[in-house]
């Protein structure tokens, strides 16, 4: 999956400079798709990132550094691709949307993944970048006509990635050919799904990062078990936003089946937070826990936290394995 993660980053920097062979005027052109209009109606989770407002944020820079520090292979591949493709993230990508498709209930987490990215690389440049990527591992990049578009398939061993362009500034990529073609087709999209559309409406889409989706069954049952049956059912869905432009402002909404379960989860979560606060003091994280609030309203339980950059630095310091990461103020 590390190869797929690198592929997703590279392909996400896409635009189109001539998307396939043109049809005659008498033939119907495929619809141009971008953003939510490219996400199939059967998606389970949607995550949107406003890259222009995320790039350069300290918390994001630190997270990327941590990722590359912990995965030398990923860091090496990224460096080689950056040197050969001369990609400038701050100029060549604007927005990215990731969607997780439905998975087999008996095998959670196996659903197809889709990414929709808006940027300004031309198709030939993107093709060269992906070719360089898969070529490092002896893989291949092939292309075939898909209506009025060109569908690319990148293979590296037993790992495969598909991508095509939805309109001149949008590239759509996915883990399966069928899901990419479904995204590019005229069928129903995510906002035609009443449930998911209602959850998305609860999110401030102006936030640099936002997400909405259905909670996996195993998570639902796990939470019911954790509360010793106090919850009659697990959470139905979640909505979340993250603003990393000044520290990290986090807002997670957990949508329950009814208000009774919402109140039960609020009480349970607050009790757990008290226990966590005592443990956090030993790690000098008391100020971080102090910034967390939990409140229930109707069927939604809100978890909010506004962390300053000093709080973020302290968290990353502990992740680095440093036991001396600053001290909390005396109570």
Structure in words:
This protein is an alpha+beta fold and 331 residues long. The radius of gyration is 22 Å and the shape is globular. It contains 12 helices and 12 strands. The N terminus and C terminus are likely disordered. 34% of the residues are buried.
Give the DSSP E fraction (strand runs of 2 or more residues). 25-35%
Any idea what the shape is?
A: globular
What does the average pLDDT come to? Answer: 80
What is the C-alpha radius of gyration, as a whole number of Å?
A: 22 Å
Distance between the termini: 45 Å
Adjacency order of strands in the biggest sheet: 4-5-6-7-3-2-1-8-9-10-12-11
**Number of contiguous helices:** 12
Binned, the helix content reads: 25-40%
Structural key phrases:
331 residues; disordered C terminus; 12 helices; disordered N terminus; twelve-stranded antiparallel beta sheet; 2 domains; alpha+beta; 12 strands
């Amino acid at each position: 999956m590390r190869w797929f993660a690198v592929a997703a980053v590279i392909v996400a920097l896409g635009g189109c400079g001539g998307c396939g062979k043109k049809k005659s005027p008498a033939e119907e052109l495929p619809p141009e798709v971008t953003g939510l209009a490219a996400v199939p109606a059967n998606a389970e989770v949607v995550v949107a990132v406003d890259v222009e407002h995320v790039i350069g944020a300290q918390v994001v820079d630190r997270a990327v550094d941590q990722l590359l520090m912990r995965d030398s292979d990923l860091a090496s591949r990224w460096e080689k691709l950056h040197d050969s493709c001369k990609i400038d993230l701050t100029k060549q990508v604007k927005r990215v949307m990731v969607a997780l498709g439905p998975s087999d209930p008996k095998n959670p987490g196996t659903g197809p993944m889709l990414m929709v990215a808006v940027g300004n690389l031309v198709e030939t440049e993107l093709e060269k970048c992906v070719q360089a990527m898969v070529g490092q591992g002896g893989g291949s990049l092939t292309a075939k006509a898909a209506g009025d578009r060109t569908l690319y398939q990148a293979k590296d061993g037993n790992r495969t990635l598909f991508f095509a362009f939805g309109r001149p500034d949008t590239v759509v990529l996915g883990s399966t050919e069928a899901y990419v073609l479904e995204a590019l087709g005229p069928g129903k999209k995510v906002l035609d799904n009443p449930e998911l559309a209602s959850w998305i409406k609860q999110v401030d889409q102006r936030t640099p990062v936002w997400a909405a989706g259905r909670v996996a069954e195993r998570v639902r049952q796990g939470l019911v078990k954790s509360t010793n049956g106090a919850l009659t059912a697990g959470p139905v869905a979640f909505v979340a936003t993250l603003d990393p432009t000044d520290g990290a402002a986090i807002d997670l909404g957990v949508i329950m089946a009814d208000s009774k379960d919402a109140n039960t989860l609020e009480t349970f979560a607050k009790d757990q937070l008290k226990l966590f606060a005592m443990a956090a003091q030993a790690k000098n994280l008391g100020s971080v826990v102090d910034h967390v609030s939990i409140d229930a309203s109707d069927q939604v339980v809100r978890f909010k936290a506004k962390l300053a950059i000093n709080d973020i630095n302290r968290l990353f310091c502990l992740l680095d394995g440093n036991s001396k990461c600053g001290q909390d103020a005396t109570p």
